[in-house]
TrEMBL record:
Name of the protein: Uncharacterized protein
Coiled-coil regions listed in the entry: none
Domain of life: Bacteria
Transmembrane regions: 12-31, 66-98, 110-131, 151-180, 187-206, 247-264, 276-298, 304-323, 335-353
Keywords associated with the record: Membrane, Transmembrane, Transmembrane helix
C-alpha cells in the first residue's frame, strides 16, 4: 500500500514537473529569437510549409516523410508554431522518460526526467524545426508500448522511425536483434511495415518501389564535409549532456556491461533484457554509428552534435543508472540518499554556471550572427528593390527566403547558386546573395571568384561578429552581364 501511494505521488509530481518544464520552455520561446540552426532547422520547416503546394515533399527522404506529414499543417502557422510543436515533443519526452524508467524498475525514475531536462542539447534543439525531438518522442513511445506489452503497435511505430530520421535504421537493426535473442521470429516482418507502406505510397511520385532506399540522401560512402577524429563525440560530450551527466552516463554504461555479461550467462529477466536492448542497445548503436560515420567521412556526416538529441532521453535514464551504480556501496545508509540528491543538484545547477559549456543567451537563444547580417540585407532589398518578388533570386539561404516570404522551391523565385553557375542562367538585374558558409560549401562559389567574374556588381555587404568573435559576412550582388 505504501509503495502504491508513493507511486501515485511520484506520478502527480512528474506531471506537475512536466507542466512547469513546458511553461519555462514557453517563456524562452517567446523571449528568444533563436532558430537553433541556420540550415537544416529552417529547411525542414520549408519542406513542411510548402508540402501542400508540392505533394512530392510528403515522399522526400531528406525532408523525412513522417516529419513532413505531421509538421505540414502546423508549418502553415509559421516557424514559431513548428518550434512550439517541437517543445511539446520534448515535454512529452520528459514525461515518457519517467514512465520508461519506472517500467524498468529503476529507483527514483523522476530523477531521469530532470536529468533529461538539464541536458543543454535537450533545450537548444527544442527551439528548432529539426527532426530530433519528434524522433526521440517516437522512439520513447515505441519503447514504452513494448514495455506495456503492446507489441504490434510498438513494432509498427519502430518501423516508421527511419522516415523521421535515418538513425531509425540503426534502431530497427537493434530491435531486429532483440527479437532474435528472445526468439520472437514471427514478429520480425512487422519491422518492414514502414518501408512497405512508403514504398507503395511514394510510387506515384517516384515510379520506383525501391525509392525508399534509392532516394536516401545519406546513402554515400563519402562526405562533402570531410572527416574527423574518433574521439570527437567524446570530447564534445559536455556540450551534449553537461560535465556532470557525462560522468554519470559512463557510470551507467558500466552497469550496462554488467547486464550484458548476465545476459550471456542467461541470468537476466525480461525487464532487464528490455533495458539492455531498448535503452543501452539503441543508445550504443546510434552513438557509435555517428562516431564511425564522422571518423570515416561517410554518409555525409558533419560531426554535428545535434543528431545525438534523438537519444538524449535514453542517455538520461542511463545516467540515472549511473547515479545508482555510483552510490550502490552506500545505498543502505542515509548518506547514500544524500549523495544521490547532491549529484542531481549538481546536474541541475551545471547549465547555469559560468562553465564554457553552460547556457549563454547570445550564443544559444539569439539569432546567429550570419542570420543577423542576412536580416539587414533583407531590409535593404525590401527598401531598394521593391519589385524583388517579380524576379528570380540566387542564394542558398533559407533564412532569407523565410524573411522575404519567398517560395524556396519555385524556380521563378529562387534558384540554388550552384545550379545558376552550372547553367549560366543569370539574367540582367537579378540578385545573387553570397554568404561565407552556404555559398562556399553548398554553392561552390568563393567570394573572390564571384568578384573576379565581371558580370556581377557588388551592391552592399553586411558583417556581424558571432559569439566566438568570428566575422560572418553576407554580400549582395546584382547581375549586370558582360561589359
Amino acid at each position: 500500500m505504501i509503495n502504491q501511494i508513493r507511486s501515485i505521488t511520484q506520478e502527480k509530481a512528474v506531471r506537475l514537473l512536466t507542466l512547469a518544464f513546458f511553461c519555462i520552455m514557453l517563456i524562452l520561446l517567446f523571449t528568444s529569437s533563436t532558430t537553433t540552426d541556420e540550415g537544416d532547422s529552417l529547411m525542414h520547416y520549408l519542406y513542411a510549409k510548402y508540402a501542400f503546394r508540392y505533394p512530392s515533399h510528403f515522399f522526400n527522404q531528406w525532408a523525412k516523410p513522417v516529419y513532413v506529414l505531421i509538421m505540414a499543417p502546423v508549418a502553415q502557422l509559421g516557424f514559431t508554431a513548428v518550434q512550439l510543436l517541437n517543445i511539446i515533443f520534448t515535454c512529452i519526452n520528459f514525461y515518457l522518460v519517467y514512465r520508461i524508467a519506472s517500467q524498468a524498475s529503476i529507483a527514483k525514475p523522476w530523477m531521469a526526467s530532470l536529468i533529461y531536462a538539464a541536458m543543454p542539447l535537450t533545450v537548444t534543439v527544442s527551439f528548432s524545426g529539426l527532426t530530433e525531438p519528434m524522433f526521440a518522442c517516437a522512439t520513447l513511445l515505441s519503447i514504452f508500448l513494448l514495455q506495456k506489452k503492446r507489441v504490434y503497435a510498438s513494432l509498427i511505430l519502430f518501423s516508421f522511425l527511419p522516415f523521421i530520421r535515418s538513425e531509425g535504421l540503426l534502431v530497427c537493426a537493434v530491435i531486429f536483434l532483440y527479437l532474435l535473442v528472445i526468439e520472437k521470429y514471427d514478429l520480425i516482418p512487422i519491422l518492414l511495415a514502414g518501408h512497405v507502406f512508403y514504398s507503395f505510397a511514394g510510387y506515384i511520385v517516384h515510379h520506383d518501389l525501391m525509392w525508399v532506399f534509392n532516394k536516401l540522401s545519406y546513402a554515400t560512402l563519402s562526405s562533402a564535409y570531410g572527416s574527423g577524429r574518433w574521439g570527437h563525440f567524446f570530447n564534445v560530450m559536455p556540450e551534449i549532456t553537461g560535465v556532470v551527466v557525462k560522468y554519470l552516463l559512463w557510470a551507467g554504461v558500466s552497469y550496462g556491461f554488467i547486464l550484458l555479461l548476465r545476459a550471456f550467462r542467461k541470468k537476466i529477466n525480461e525487464t532487464e533484457q528490455q533495458e539492455l536492448w531498448l535503452m543501452y542497445g539503441i543508445f550504443i548503436s546510434v552513438f557509435a554509428g555517428h562516431i564511425i560515420f564522422w571518423a570515416l567521412g561517410i554518409f555525409n556526416s558533419m560531426g554535428l552534435i545535434r543528431p545525438i538529441a534523438g537519444i538524449t532521453p535514453l542517455m538520461a535514464i542511463i545516467a540515472l543508472r549511473g547515479i545508482q551504480y555510483f552510490t550502490a556501496p552506500i545505498q543502505q545508509f542515509r548518506a547514500g540518499l544524500y549523495v544521490q540528491y547532491l549529484l542531481l543538484v549538481a546536474v541541475l545547477i551545471f547549465p547555469f554556471t559560468s562553465n564554457v559549456y553552460a547556457y549563454k543567451w547570445k550564443r544559444d537563444f539569439e539569432l546567429k550572427a550570419d542570420q543577423k547580417a542576412q536580416l539587414q540585407l533583407v531590409k535593404y532589398i525590401k527598401q531598394y528593390y521593391p519589385n524583388h518578388s517579380q524576379h528570380t533570386m540566387y542564394h542558398v539561404l533559407p533564412w532569407v527566403s523565410i524573411q522575404l516570404k519567398q517560395d524556396w522551391f519555385d524556380p521563378n523565385r529562387h534558384i540554388h547558386i550552384n545550379d545558376a553557375f552550372t547553367r549560366n542562367q543569370f539574367k540582367k538585374g537579378e540578385l545573387f546573395i553570397w554568404d561565407d558558409w552556404f555559398a562556399v560549401v553548398e554553392g561552390n562559389a568563393p567570394l573572390e571568384a564571384v568578384r573576379k567574374d565581371g558580370r556581377f556588381k557588388e551592391v552592399i555587404s553586411y558583417e556581424e561578429k558571432d559569439y566566438w568573435g568570428n566575422t560572418r559576412k553576407t554580400v549582395l550582388f546584382e547581375f549586370v552581364g558582360a561589359e
